[in-house]
Amino acid sequence: MGELEVDVAIIGAGVAGLSIARELSRYSVNVVVIERNVDVAQEMTSNNMGLVCQGADSLTFRPGSLHAELNIKSIPLWPKFAEELGVPFKRVGGLGLICHKADYLRFLKMYSRAFKSSLKPNAPYYIPEGSFKPLQFLDRRSLKDLEPNINPRIQGALYDPNLAVIDPVLLARSLAENAKANGVELLFGNEVKTIERKDTYFLVNTNETTVRASFVVNAAGINAESIAEMVGARNFSYVPVKGILTDFDEETSEVFSHQAFYLPRLGDPHIRAVVPIVYGGLRVGIHLDFVLRSDKNIPLQGLEHNLKVVKEVIPDYPFEKHVKRTFYGIMPLTNAEVGWHDFIVDIPEYVPKWVNVILGPAGVSSAPMLGKKVAELLMTSGLYLTPRTDFNPIVERGVKP
Ligand SMILES: Cc1cc2nc3c(=O)[nH]c(=O)nc-3n(C[C@H](O)[C@H](O)[C@H](O)COP(=O)(O)OP(=O)(O)OC[C@H]3O[C@@H](n4cnc5c(N)ncnc54)[C@H](O)[C@@H]3O)c2cc1C
Known about the structure:
about 400 residues, D-Amino Acid Oxidase, Chain A, domain 2, eight-stranded mixed sheet, globular, binds flavin-adenine dinucleotide
Protein backbone atom coordinates (compact mmCIF):
# COMPACT_ATOMS: atom_id res chain seq x y z
CA MET A 1 0.00 0.00 0.00
CA GLY A 2 1.56 3.29 -1.09
CA GLU A 3 0.51 6.76 -2.21
CA LEU A 4 1.28 8.75 -5.29
CA GLU A 5 0.62 12.40 -6.14
CA VAL A 6 0.28 13.40 -9.81
CA ASP A 7 -1.15 16.09 -12.05
CA VAL A 8 -3.08 13.64 -14.24
CA ALA A 9 -4.29 10.10 -13.54
CA ILE A 10 -5.41 8.17 -16.60
CA ILE A 11 -7.57 5.11 -15.95
CA GLY A 12 -7.09 2.42 -18.61
CA ALA A 13 -4.08 1.21 -20.61
CA GLY A 14 -5.87 0.60 -23.90
CA VAL A 15 -5.11 2.61 -27.02
CA ALA A 16 -7.16 5.54 -25.67
CA GLY A 17 -5.42 5.93 -22.31
CA LEU A 18 -1.99 5.29 -23.77
CA SER A 19 -2.25 7.67 -26.71
CA ILE A 20 -3.35 10.36 -24.25
CA ALA A 21 -0.46 9.50 -21.90
CA ARG A 22 2.05 9.66 -24.74
CA GLU A 23 0.73 13.04 -25.90
CA LEU A 24 0.87 14.46 -22.35
CA SER A 25 4.46 13.24 -22.01
CA ARG A 26 5.42 16.06 -24.40
CA TYR A 27 4.75 18.46 -21.51
CA SER A 28 6.10 19.08 -18.02
CA VAL A 29 3.33 17.32 -16.10
CA ASN A 30 3.29 14.24 -13.86
CA VAL A 31 1.13 11.54 -15.39
CA VAL A 32 0.23 8.04 -14.21
CA VAL A 33 -1.69 5.37 -16.14
CA ILE A 34 -3.66 3.01 -13.88
CA GLU A 35 -4.52 -0.40 -15.36
CA ARG A 36 -6.24 -3.36 -13.70
CA ASN A 37 -4.61 -5.97 -15.98
CA VAL A 38 -0.95 -6.91 -15.81
CA ASP A 39 -0.22 -5.72 -19.34
CA VAL A 40 -1.43 -3.12 -21.84
CA ALA A 41 -4.21 -3.71 -24.38
CA GLN A 42 -5.90 -6.72 -22.85
CA GLU A 43 -9.45 -5.69 -23.76
CA MET A 44 -10.94 -3.89 -26.81
CA THR A 45 -7.52 -2.81 -28.09
CA SER A 46 -6.49 -6.43 -28.67
CA ASN A 47 -9.83 -7.60 -30.06
CA ASN A 48 -10.61 -5.63 -33.17
CA MET A 49 -10.20 -5.63 -36.95
CA GLY A 50 -6.88 -3.76 -36.95
CA LEU A 51 -8.05 -1.33 -39.61
CA VAL A 52 -6.92 2.27 -39.75
CA CYS A 53 -9.65 4.25 -41.48
CA GLN A 54 -7.82 6.30 -44.05
CA GLY A 55 -10.23 7.17 -46.76
CA ALA A 56 -13.65 6.07 -47.91
CA ASP A 57 -14.71 4.78 -44.52
CA SER A 58 -13.79 7.83 -42.45
CA LEU A 59 -15.17 10.17 -45.05
CA THR A 60 -18.57 8.55 -44.59
CA PHE A 61 -18.73 9.27 -40.87
CA ARG A 62 -21.45 11.73 -40.05
CA PRO A 63 -20.20 15.27 -40.72
CA GLY A 64 -20.07 17.30 -37.51
CA SER A 65 -19.57 14.25 -35.28
CA LEU A 66 -16.49 13.78 -33.12
CA HIS A 67 -16.14 10.39 -34.81
CA ALA A 68 -15.59 12.19 -38.13
CA GLU A 69 -13.46 14.99 -36.70
CA LEU A 70 -10.92 12.83 -34.85
CA ASN A 71 -10.66 10.19 -37.55
CA ILE A 72 -10.35 12.54 -40.51
CA LYS A 73 -7.86 14.79 -38.72
CA SER A 74 -5.85 11.65 -37.89
CA ILE A 75 -5.48 10.64 -41.56
CA PRO A 76 -2.49 12.87 -42.41
CA LEU A 77 -0.88 12.19 -39.01
CA TRP A 78 -0.81 8.38 -39.22
CA PRO A 79 2.31 7.66 -41.30
CA LYS A 80 4.60 9.75 -39.03
CA PHE A 81 2.82 8.58 -35.86
CA ALA A 82 3.38 4.92 -36.81
CA GLU A 83 6.95 5.49 -37.91
CA GLU A 84 7.95 7.27 -34.69
CA LEU A 85 6.43 4.45 -32.67
CA GLY A 86 8.01 1.72 -34.82
CA VAL A 87 4.64 0.19 -35.71
CA PRO A 88 4.17 -1.34 -39.19
CA PHE A 89 1.51 0.65 -41.05
CA LYS A 90 0.51 -1.27 -44.15
CA ARG A 91 -1.69 0.29 -46.82
CA VAL A 92 -3.67 -2.71 -48.08
CA GLY A 93 -6.39 -0.73 -49.87
CA GLY A 94 -10.13 -1.27 -49.45
CA LEU A 95 -12.75 -2.64 -51.83
CA GLY A 96 -16.40 -1.69 -51.36
CA LEU A 97 -18.03 -4.57 -53.24
CA ILE A 98 -20.76 -3.90 -55.83
CA CYS A 99 -23.20 -6.72 -56.59
CA HIS A 100 -26.17 -4.75 -57.91
CA LYS A 101 -26.92 -1.36 -59.42
CA ALA A 102 -28.37 -0.32 -56.05
CA ASP A 103 -24.95 -0.90 -54.43
CA TYR A 104 -23.30 1.23 -57.11
CA LEU A 105 -25.74 4.08 -56.48
CA ARG A 106 -25.08 3.94 -52.72
CA PHE A 107 -21.33 3.99 -53.26
CA LEU A 108 -21.69 6.83 -55.76
CA LYS A 109 -23.42 8.89 -53.09
CA MET A 110 -20.63 8.11 -50.60
CA TYR A 111 -17.99 8.94 -53.18
CA SER A 112 -19.38 12.36 -54.05
CA ARG A 113 -19.86 13.19 -50.37
CA ALA A 114 -16.28 12.15 -49.66
CA PHE A 115 -14.91 14.66 -52.08
CA LYS A 116 -17.15 17.44 -50.82
CA SER A 117 -16.45 16.98 -47.15
CA SER A 118 -12.69 16.94 -46.87
CA LEU A 119 -10.62 17.45 -49.96
CA LYS A 120 -11.20 21.16 -50.59
CA PRO A 121 -9.03 23.64 -48.69
CA ASN A 122 -12.06 25.34 -47.10
CA ALA A 123 -13.63 22.03 -46.01
CA PRO A 124 -14.17 21.64 -42.24
CA TYR A 125 -11.71 18.75 -41.92
CA TYR A 126 -9.39 19.46 -44.81
CA ILE A 127 -6.98 16.64 -45.66
CA PRO A 128 -3.81 18.19 -47.10
CA GLU A 129 -2.77 17.20 -50.58
CA GLY A 130 -0.46 14.22 -50.66
CA SER A 131 -2.04 12.43 -47.70
CA PHE A 132 -5.01 11.04 -49.59
CA LYS A 133 -5.24 9.29 -52.95
CA PRO A 134 -8.55 9.62 -54.83
CA LEU A 135 -11.04 6.78 -54.69
CA GLN A 136 -11.78 4.94 -57.89
CA PHE A 137 -14.61 2.81 -59.31
CA LEU A 138 -13.36 -0.51 -60.70
CA ASP A 139 -15.26 -2.55 -63.26
CA ARG A 140 -15.43 -6.33 -63.11
CA ARG A 141 -12.25 -6.83 -65.18
CA SER A 142 -10.07 -4.40 -63.19
CA LEU A 143 -11.36 -5.93 -59.97
CA LYS A 144 -10.41 -9.40 -61.20
CA ASP A 145 -6.92 -8.11 -62.11
CA LEU A 146 -6.52 -6.87 -58.55
CA GLU A 147 -8.06 -9.91 -56.84
CA PRO A 148 -8.10 -12.94 -59.21
CA ASN A 149 -9.95 -15.17 -56.71
CA ILE A 150 -12.85 -12.83 -56.05
CA ASN A 151 -16.42 -14.11 -56.41
CA PRO A 152 -17.37 -13.80 -60.13
CA ARG A 153 -20.83 -12.59 -59.08
CA ILE A 154 -19.30 -9.33 -57.84
CA GLN A 155 -19.70 -6.73 -60.57
CA GLY A 156 -17.18 -4.11 -59.47
CA ALA A 157 -15.94 -2.14 -56.49
CA LEU A 158 -15.27 1.26 -55.06
CA TYR A 159 -11.51 1.12 -54.53
CA ASP A 160 -9.88 3.08 -51.73
CA PRO A 161 -6.09 2.84 -52.07
CA ASN A 162 -5.55 4.58 -48.71
CA LEU A 163 -6.94 2.04 -46.26
CA ALA A 164 -4.31 0.65 -43.88
CA VAL A 165 -3.90 -2.06 -41.24
CA ILE A 166 -1.76 -2.09 -38.09
CA ASP A 167 -1.19 -4.25 -35.04
CA PRO A 168 -3.13 -2.39 -32.33
CA VAL A 169 -1.42 -4.35 -29.53
CA LEU A 170 2.04 -3.36 -30.75
CA LEU A 171 0.76 0.20 -31.09
CA ALA A 172 -0.37 0.16 -27.44
CA ARG A 173 2.98 -1.33 -26.35
CA SER A 174 4.92 1.32 -28.24
CA LEU A 175 2.76 4.13 -26.88
CA ALA A 176 3.34 2.81 -23.36
CA GLU A 177 7.05 2.40 -23.92
CA ASN A 178 7.42 5.87 -25.39
CA ALA A 179 5.27 7.50 -22.68
CA LYS A 180 7.32 5.73 -20.02
CA ALA A 181 10.63 6.78 -21.61
CA ASN A 182 9.31 10.35 -21.42
CA GLY A 183 8.43 10.16 -17.73
CA VAL A 184 4.92 8.68 -17.49
CA GLU A 185 4.40 6.16 -14.70
CA LEU A 186 2.47 2.96 -15.47
CA LEU A 187 0.70 1.06 -12.67
CA PHE A 188 -0.37 -2.44 -13.71
CA GLY A 189 -2.47 -4.84 -11.63
CA ASN A 190 -4.22 -1.83 -10.10
CA GLU A 191 -7.98 -1.96 -10.32
CA VAL A 192 -9.72 1.31 -9.51
CA LYS A 193 -12.24 0.49 -6.78
CA THR A 194 -13.44 3.90 -5.59
CA ILE A 195 -12.75 7.54 -6.32
CA GLU A 196 -13.19 10.36 -3.81
CA ARG A 197 -13.83 13.79 -5.24
CA LYS A 198 -12.31 16.53 -3.07
CA ASP A 199 -12.39 20.33 -3.60
CA THR A 200 -9.30 20.56 -5.81
CA TYR A 201 -8.25 16.98 -6.42
CA PHE A 202 -9.37 13.35 -6.67
CA LEU A 203 -8.28 10.38 -4.60
CA VAL A 204 -8.24 7.36 -6.87
CA ASN A 205 -8.21 4.20 -4.75
CA THR A 206 -7.05 0.93 -6.29
CA ASN A 207 -6.56 -2.52 -4.75
CA GLU A 208 -2.88 -1.59 -4.26
CA THR A 209 -2.56 2.15 -3.75
CA THR A 210 -4.11 5.60 -3.59
CA VAL A 211 -3.35 8.15 -6.29
CA ARG A 212 -3.96 11.81 -5.53
CA ALA A 213 -4.60 13.50 -8.88
CA SER A 214 -5.53 17.07 -9.86
CA PHE A 215 -7.10 15.78 -13.10
CA VAL A 216 -8.54 12.40 -14.09
CA VAL A 217 -9.02 10.92 -17.55
CA ASN A 218 -11.50 8.07 -17.60
CA ALA A 219 -10.39 5.84 -20.50
CA ALA A 220 -11.71 2.58 -19.04
CA GLY A 221 -13.27 1.30 -22.27
CA ILE A 222 -16.42 -0.74 -21.78
CA ASN A 223 -16.07 -0.09 -18.02
CA ALA A 224 -16.03 3.72 -18.37
CA GLU A 225 -19.63 3.92 -17.14
CA SER A 226 -18.80 2.39 -13.74
CA ILE A 227 -15.75 4.63 -13.33
CA ALA A 228 -17.75 7.78 -14.18
CA GLU A 229 -20.46 6.76 -11.71
CA MET A 230 -17.90 6.79 -8.87
CA VAL A 231 -17.87 10.63 -8.99
CA GLY A 232 -21.23 11.43 -10.58
CA ALA A 233 -19.61 12.08 -13.97
CA ARG A 234 -21.78 9.75 -16.05
CA ASN A 235 -23.35 12.17 -18.53
CA PHE A 236 -23.52 9.50 -21.24
CA SER A 237 -24.86 6.05 -21.92
CA TYR A 238 -23.96 3.22 -24.27
CA VAL A 239 -24.90 -0.35 -24.97
CA PRO A 240 -22.27 -3.11 -25.02
CA VAL A 241 -22.05 -4.78 -28.42
CA LYS A 242 -20.08 -7.98 -28.88
CA GLY A 243 -18.25 -8.33 -32.18
CA ILE A 244 -17.05 -11.84 -33.09
CA LEU A 245 -14.06 -12.16 -35.42
CA THR A 246 -12.27 -15.12 -37.01
CA ASP A 247 -8.59 -15.25 -38.00
CA PHE A 248 -7.44 -17.45 -40.88
CA ASP A 249 -3.83 -18.60 -41.18
CA GLU A 250 -0.98 -17.02 -43.19
CA GLU A 251 -1.62 -19.21 -46.26
CA THR A 252 -4.86 -17.31 -46.90
CA SER A 253 -2.80 -14.20 -47.71
CA GLU A 254 -1.97 -15.92 -50.98
CA VAL A 255 -5.60 -15.91 -52.09
CA PHE A 256 -6.62 -12.37 -51.13
CA SER A 257 -4.71 -9.22 -50.24
CA HIS A 258 -7.16 -6.30 -49.91
CA GLN A 259 -9.76 -5.36 -47.35
CA ALA A 260 -13.21 -6.04 -48.83
CA PHE A 261 -16.67 -5.34 -47.50
CA TYR A 262 -20.28 -5.65 -48.54
CA LEU A 263 -22.76 -2.86 -47.87
CA PRO A 264 -25.13 -3.63 -44.99
CA ARG A 265 -28.34 -5.46 -45.93
CA LEU A 266 -31.75 -4.41 -44.69
CA GLY A 267 -32.68 -6.49 -41.62
CA ASP A 268 -29.14 -7.92 -41.22
CA PRO A 269 -27.25 -6.26 -38.36
CA HIS A 270 -23.95 -8.05 -38.99
CA ILE A 271 -20.92 -6.62 -40.77
CA ARG A 272 -19.46 -8.50 -43.76
CA ALA A 273 -15.77 -7.65 -44.09
CA VAL A 274 -12.49 -9.40 -44.89
CA VAL A 275 -9.30 -7.72 -43.67
CA PRO A 276 -5.64 -8.67 -44.23
CA ILE A 277 -3.74 -9.05 -40.95
CA VAL A 278 -0.58 -6.96 -40.90
CA TYR A 279 1.67 -10.01 -40.33
CA GLY A 280 -0.20 -12.29 -42.78
CA GLY A 281 -3.53 -14.13 -42.83
CA LEU A 282 -7.07 -12.77 -43.00
CA ARG A 283 -9.39 -11.50 -40.27
CA VAL A 284 -13.09 -11.82 -41.01
CA GLY A 285 -16.26 -10.59 -39.32
CA ILE A 286 -18.17 -9.13 -37.70
CA HIS A 287 -20.99 -11.08 -36.07
CA LEU A 288 -22.65 -8.52 -33.77
CA ASP A 289 -24.79 -9.03 -30.69
CA PHE A 290 -26.14 -6.84 -27.90
CA VAL A 291 -24.84 -8.44 -24.68
CA LEU A 292 -23.99 -7.89 -21.05
CA ARG A 293 -20.50 -6.49 -20.42
CA SER A 294 -19.58 -9.68 -18.58
CA ASP A 295 -20.68 -12.05 -21.39
CA LYS A 296 -17.73 -14.28 -22.35
CA ASN A 297 -19.60 -16.75 -24.52
CA ILE A 298 -18.62 -17.22 -28.19
CA PRO A 299 -21.67 -18.67 -29.94
CA LEU A 300 -21.10 -20.99 -32.90
CA GLN A 301 -23.11 -18.57 -35.07
CA GLY A 302 -20.10 -16.23 -34.87
CA LEU A 303 -17.79 -18.65 -36.68
CA GLU A 304 -20.59 -19.68 -39.07
CA HIS A 305 -21.25 -16.06 -40.02
CA ASN A 306 -17.57 -15.34 -40.56
CA LEU A 307 -17.04 -18.44 -42.72
CA LYS A 308 -20.07 -17.48 -44.79
CA VAL A 309 -18.70 -13.95 -45.27
CA VAL A 310 -15.27 -15.07 -46.42
CA LYS A 311 -16.84 -17.57 -48.85
CA GLU A 312 -19.12 -14.87 -50.25
CA VAL A 313 -15.97 -12.92 -51.14
CA ILE A 314 -13.68 -15.82 -52.17
CA PRO A 315 -15.86 -18.86 -52.96
CA ASP A 316 -13.41 -21.53 -54.11
CA TYR A 317 -11.09 -21.97 -51.16
CA PRO A 318 -11.28 -24.40 -48.21
CA PHE A 319 -11.34 -21.75 -45.48
CA GLU A 320 -12.64 -24.32 -42.93
CA LYS A 321 -9.15 -25.87 -42.98
CA HIS A 322 -7.44 -22.55 -42.31
CA VAL A 323 -9.29 -21.27 -39.21
CA LYS A 324 -6.80 -20.12 -36.58
CA ARG A 325 -9.07 -18.74 -33.88
CA THR A 326 -12.44 -17.13 -33.24
CA PHE A 327 -12.58 -14.40 -30.61
CA TYR A 328 -14.58 -11.35 -29.59
CA GLY A 329 -14.35 -7.76 -28.50
CA ILE A 330 -17.05 -5.85 -26.66
CA MET A 331 -17.45 -2.24 -27.71
CA PRO A 332 -19.59 0.57 -26.34
CA LEU A 333 -22.15 1.83 -28.84
CA THR A 334 -23.51 5.27 -28.05
CA ASN A 335 -26.77 6.69 -29.45
CA ALA A 336 -28.10 3.16 -29.92
CA GLU A 337 -31.63 4.57 -30.13
CA VAL A 338 -30.84 6.43 -33.36
CA GLY A 339 -28.21 4.00 -34.60
CA TRP A 340 -25.59 6.69 -35.11
CA HIS A 341 -22.56 6.06 -32.91
CA ASP A 342 -20.29 8.90 -31.83
CA PHE A 343 -17.19 9.12 -29.65
CA ILE A 344 -17.50 10.78 -26.27
CA VAL A 345 -14.53 12.92 -25.29
CA ASP A 346 -15.65 15.62 -22.89
CA ILE A 347 -15.70 17.20 -19.45
CA PRO A 348 -19.02 16.65 -17.67
CA GLU A 349 -20.67 19.92 -16.66
CA TYR A 350 -20.70 19.18 -12.92
CA VAL A 351 -17.29 17.51 -12.64
CA PRO A 352 -14.55 19.84 -13.87
CA LYS A 353 -11.02 18.47 -14.19
CA TRP A 354 -12.43 15.12 -15.30
CA VAL A 355 -12.48 13.87 -18.91
CA ASN A 356 -14.58 10.93 -20.11
CA VAL A 357 -13.20 9.13 -23.18
CA ILE A 358 -15.45 6.52 -24.79
CA LEU A 359 -14.44 5.40 -28.26
CA GLY A 360 -16.17 2.25 -29.55
CA PRO A 361 -16.11 1.62 -33.33
CA ALA A 362 -13.07 3.04 -35.19
CA GLY A 363 -11.38 4.18 -31.99
CA VAL A 364 -7.92 2.85 -32.86
CA SER A 365 -8.01 4.98 -36.02
CA SER A 366 -8.44 8.16 -33.99
CA ALA A 367 -5.31 7.62 -31.85
CA PRO A 368 -3.07 10.37 -33.34
CA MET A 369 -5.69 13.10 -32.73
CA LEU A 370 -7.20 11.79 -29.52
CA GLY A 371 -4.27 12.79 -27.29
CA LYS A 372 -4.25 16.29 -28.77
CA LYS A 373 -7.99 16.67 -28.19
CA VAL A 374 -7.72 15.58 -24.56
CA ALA A 375 -4.68 17.82 -23.93
CA GLU A 376 -6.74 20.78 -25.20
CA LEU A 377 -9.66 19.86 -22.94
CA LEU A 378 -7.37 19.54 -19.93
CA MET A 379 -5.92 22.98 -20.67
CA THR A 380 -9.40 24.51 -20.80
CA SER A 381 -10.01 22.84 -17.45
CA GLY A 382 -6.95 24.56 -15.92
CA LEU A 383 -4.01 22.21 -16.54
CA TYR A 384 -0.92 24.21 -17.40
CA LEU A 385 1.00 22.47 -20.21
CA THR A 386 4.56 23.63 -20.86
CA PRO A 387 6.33 21.75 -23.68
CA ARG A 388 9.40 19.79 -22.61
CA THR A 389 12.55 20.38 -24.59
CA ASP A 390 13.78 16.81 -24.06
CA PHE A 391 10.70 14.94 -25.34
CA ASN A 392 11.82 12.07 -27.58
CA PRO A 393 9.02 10.82 -29.89
CA ILE A 394 10.97 7.82 -31.16
CA VAL A 395 10.64 4.24 -29.97
CA GLU A 396 14.15 2.93 -30.56
CA ARG A 397 13.42 -0.80 -30.67
CA GLY A 398 10.83 -0.28 -33.41
CA VAL A 399 9.90 -2.76 -36.09
CA LYS A 400 10.15 -0.77 -39.30
CA PRO A 401 7.19 -0.73 -41.72
C1 LIG B 1 -15.04 -6.33 -32.94
C2 LIG B 1 -14.38 -4.99 -32.98
C3 LIG B 1 -13.77 -4.53 -34.14
C4 LIG B 1 -13.17 -3.27 -34.17
N1 LIG B 1 -12.48 -2.90 -35.29
C5 LIG B 1 -11.81 -1.71 -35.31
C6 LIG B 1 -11.01 -1.34 -36.43
O1 LIG B 1 -10.85 -2.10 -37.39
N2 LIG B 1 -10.42 -0.13 -36.42
C7 LIG B 1 -10.57 0.76 -35.37
O2 LIG B 1 -10.05 1.86 -35.44
N3 LIG B 1 -11.30 0.41 -34.28
C8 LIG B 1 -11.90 -0.79 -34.21
N4 LIG B 1 -12.62 -1.16 -33.10
C9 LIG B 1 -12.70 -0.23 -31.96
C10 LIG B 1 -11.43 -0.20 -31.10
O3 LIG B 1 -11.02 -1.51 -30.78
C11 LIG B 1 -11.70 0.61 -29.83
O4 LIG B 1 -12.20 1.88 -30.17
C12 LIG B 1 -10.46 0.85 -29.00
O5 LIG B 1 -9.69 -0.31 -28.83
C13 LIG B 1 -10.88 1.39 -27.63
O6 LIG B 1 -9.75 1.50 -26.83
P1 LIG B 1 -9.93 1.91 -25.29
O7 LIG B 1 -8.57 2.21 -24.79
O8 LIG B 1 -10.99 2.94 -25.17
O9 LIG B 1 -10.53 0.60 -24.59
P2 LIG B 1 -9.76 -0.77 -24.00
O10 LIG B 1 -8.75 -1.17 -24.99
O11 LIG B 1 -10.83 -1.68 -23.66
O12 LIG B 1 -9.02 -0.18 -22.75
C14 LIG B 1 -9.68 0.14 -21.54
C15 LIG B 1 -8.77 -0.29 -20.41
O13 LIG B 1 -9.34 0.15 -19.17
C16 LIG B 1 -9.04 -0.82 -18.19
N5 LIG B 1 -9.95 -0.70 -17.05
C17 LIG B 1 -11.29 -0.84 -17.05
N6 LIG B 1 -11.77 -0.69 -15.80
C18 LIG B 1 -10.70 -0.44 -14.99
C19 LIG B 1 -10.56 -0.23 -13.61
N7 LIG B 1 -11.60 -0.24 -12.75
N8 LIG B 1 -9.32 -0.01 -13.10
C20 LIG B 1 -8.23 -0.01 -13.92
N9 LIG B 1 -8.32 -0.24 -15.25
C21 LIG B 1 -9.55 -0.44 -15.79
C22 LIG B 1 -9.23 -2.14 -18.94
O14 LIG B 1 -8.60 -3.21 -18.29
C23 LIG B 1 -8.65 -1.80 -20.31
O15 LIG B 1 -7.27 -2.16 -20.40
C24 LIG B 1 -13.21 -2.42 -33.03
C25 LIG B 1 -13.82 -2.88 -31.86
C26 LIG B 1 -14.38 -4.16 -31.81
C27 LIG B 1 -14.97 -4.66 -30.52
